[in-house]
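Minutes, project check-in
Item: structure for the 117-residue chain
Input as provided by the requester:
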Amino acid sequence: MENLKTQHMEKENFVTLTGFVGTQPLVWEYGNNFKKTEFVLGSKLNKEENKASWHKIIAFGKYANLTIEQCEKGARIWLKGKVVNRKYVNKNGEEKSIREISVIALKKLDKLSLKNN
């Protein structure tokens, strides 16, 4: 059983990102106080780069609660997440693809760490 779980984990893609929260997190509440949040994160490959890469971030349950507490617009955060690719049909009947990062670890970085990076 453990071998099967390990094989499944190896097929998933994970990322680690450090960047700035670009939008105030949107919050959806479901039954039993279960929440989902969504926001965008801007990151740069290096200090000299002037252009940010934007990532759609989603979080569920306890990680959604963390984003509500720590991810106001402009905050600098570190996160680890699972890459999720999905398709949907928009209101015009067109099939669209989307890539999201589903949070599995999150930490707000303080202003001191801004000077070190």
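Outcome recorded: The first strand starts at residue 14 and ends at 21.
No further action items on this chain.
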